[in-house]
Design brief:
Number of strands: 10
CATH class of the largest domain: Alpha Beta
Order of helices and strands: EHHEEEEEHHEEEHHEH
Number of helices: 7
Number of domains: 2
CATH architecture of the largest domain: 2-Layer Sandwich
Structural class: alpha/beta
Largest sheet: 6 strands, mixed
CATH superfamily of the largest domain: SCP2 sterol-binding domain
Length: 205
């Protein structure tokens, strides 16, 4: 099943498309998405951002803005997933609503798996700081990429926090600033690493 976006897509369209492509790697989600028909809108409750997702059984098409004829409308705080979204239209279009929800929440795999995939792409760029080490707080688990010796940058966090950062589900710099991840290294290298995680979020790494 294909995911298509408009030319010069705005960030919210690119992010939702990346989430959808990851989610569709699950056979159960792909089967559900193929059954869905109609238009679902994800709209921010804090700013004008919105994306319309059109399901036709073979292709999922994304475009900026909120379609006035949407079958399902999800209004969410895009910056805070602890805020419960409001959903309208789900009772009339349950398959469409469920398919949209599943596309927006791809599973985050075990931290080493997410990190291996991320590092394989990031280290292909000469600007990526290296060596880079991830450390699971409170355990002896750690892994280093990009060479031997003392790491140039080291990120400490729980397994879940590291997996989320490497998958692009969270931004490394933001998590460090909020105290959720611990940094050993320079803010310059953190900024560079965050740029790669943003590319991962957009599905463009």
């Amino acid at each position: 099943m294909r995911v298509e976006i408009e030319n010069n897509a705005v960030p919210i369209v690119r992010v939702v498309a990346a989430l959808a492509r990851r989610s569709l790697n699950q056979r159960s989600v792909e089967k559900l998405a193929r059954r869905a028909r109609g238009k679902a809108v994800l709209q921010s409750m804090t700013d004008p951002q919105a994306v319309t997702v059109h399901f036709d059984g073979e292709v999922i098409r994304l475009a900026r803005g909120s379609a006035p004829d949407a079958d399902v409308l999800i209004i969410a705080d895009l910056a805070d997933d602890s805020v419960k979204p409001t959903v309208t239209g789900a009772a009339r279009h349950p398959v469409l609503a469920l398919a949209m929800a599943k596309l927006l929440e791809p599973p985050v795999r075990e931290w080493r798996v997410e990190a291996e995939e991320f590092m394989a792409k990031a280290l292909a760029d000469a600007e990526c700081p290296r060596p880079l080490r991830l450390v699971v707080i409170g355990t002896t688990e750690s892994q280093q990429w990009g060479g031997e010796g003392e790491p140039r940058i080291e990120i400490h966090g729980s397994r879940e926090q590291l997996a989320a950062a490497m998958s692009g589900s969270t931004l490394v710099a933001e998590e460090v600033l909020h105290g959720n991840l611990k940094l050993v290294g320079s803010l310059c290298d953190l900024s560079i690493l965050t740029r790669f995680t943003i590319d991962q979020l957009f599905g463009e790494l």
